[in-house]
């Protein structure tokens, strides 16, 4: 697909006839079967030649996942599931899409992929508004290659919403664009992201102004908080603008989970905290219940470690945890 994109071919669900029942890359690049007598050393050399250690793994995987979601009808939650062989399957998609593999994802990379993909989807309307505003030619956005657009969205999200170090975000996304597409694409990413960084430093990011008639205000709010226009208009009609803004802000908050230590089995919150430290899962202690811990990312690591299956802890909302007070 990297070759298709580098030739300026725009891929869309209509032109490719993509349905949600088939993975995107299986439609664009059917996997040819390899004869048994050609497997082994030759295939190992082939894989080694396509390994790229310079490209950021979490950004490469995030770009491919976003492509699969937007063009292939995949679901973000299902892509986060980690089963047997899922790592190889993930890299197979990356290789077929970008033309190379990266190093395997570690626990930190997986958390970043989940955060970047989920956040980019959640804030896509706002991110696209910024990209359009910073493009010299407004028509460039509508005709932009799908992979290039995803790379820009990732960069904008990391700079504007995650507040990652700007120099690292620019450098890594430029490298991804150059390797996966072509040098010219990297130059374009470099120019747009550097312009965004400069505007952010000057506190002059082009944010839509909420002014004009009801329709204009609804469109501005929909862009600012990345919600559908029809939803903003309906909420504003029944709830008022102030309550609508509060509701959209609540919708855009990062979801968190509560873990309850199973004290009935002698597993205390202190034991739970030690396990989370070993798994490098960030957490915060509940302010209300002594057996509960809150986590925003890393739940998959907890599941993979078998902590839920072994009954050491359970995912439970704190509102239902009063009876577990000790």
TrEMBL record:
Biased composition (Polar residues): 12-22
InterPro entries per UniProt: NusB-like_sf, NusB_fam, NusB_RsmB_TIM44, RCMT_RsmB-rel_pln, RsmB-like_ferredoxin
Organism: Trapa natans
Keywords: RNA-binding, Transcription, Transcription antitermination, Transcription regulation
Signal peptide, first to last residue: none
Coiled-coil boundaries: none
Positions of the Ribosomal RNA small subunit methyltransferase B-like ferredoxin-like domain: 227-297
Region annotated Disordered, chain positions: 1-22
Name of the protein: NusB/RsmB/TIM44 domain-containing protein
Similarity section: Belongs to the NusB family.
GO terms (BP aspect): DNA-templated transcription termination; transcription antitermination
Keyword Cell membrane belongs to the record: no
């Amino acid at each position: 697909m990297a070759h298709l994109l580098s030739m300026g071919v725009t891929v869309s669900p209509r032109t490719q006839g993509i349905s949600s029942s088939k993975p995107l890359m299986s439609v664009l690049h059917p996997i040819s079967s390899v004869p048994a007598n050609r497997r082994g050393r030759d295939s190992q050399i082939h894989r080694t030649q396509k390994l790229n250690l310079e490209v950021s793994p979490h950004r490469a995987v995030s770009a491919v996942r976003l492509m699969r979601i937007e063009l292939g009808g995949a679901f973000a939650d299902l892509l986060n599931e980690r089963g047997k062989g899922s790592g190889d399957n993930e890299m197979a998609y990356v290789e077929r899409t970008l033309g190379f593999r990266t190093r395997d994802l570690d626990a930190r990379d997986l958390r970043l992929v989940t955060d970047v993909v989920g956040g980019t989807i959640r804030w896509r309307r706002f991110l696209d508004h910024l990209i359009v505003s910073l493009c010299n030619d407004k028509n460039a956005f509508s005709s932009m290659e799908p992979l290039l657009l995803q790379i820009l969205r990732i960069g904008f999200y990391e700079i504007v919403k995650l507040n990652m170090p700007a120099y690292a975000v620019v450098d890594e996304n430029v490298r991804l664009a150059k390797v996966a597409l072509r040098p010219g694409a990297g130059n374009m990413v470099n120019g747009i992201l550097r312009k965004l960084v400069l505007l952010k430093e000057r506190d002059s990011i082009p944010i839509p102004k909420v002014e004009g008639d009801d329709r204009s205000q609804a469109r501005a709010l929909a862009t600012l908080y990345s919600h559908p226009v029809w939803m903003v208009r309906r909420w504003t009609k029944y709830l008022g603008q102030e309550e609508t803004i509060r509701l959209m802000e609540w919708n855009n908050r990062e979801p968190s989970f509560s873990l309850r230590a199973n004290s009935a089995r002698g597993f205390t919150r202190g034991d739970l905290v030690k396990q989370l430290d070993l798994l490098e899962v960030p957490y915060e202690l509940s302010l209300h219940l002594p057996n509960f811990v809150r986590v925003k990312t890393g739940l998959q690591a907890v599941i993979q470690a078998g902590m839920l299956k072994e009954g050491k802890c359970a995912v439970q909302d704190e509102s239902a945890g009063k009876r577990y007070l000790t």
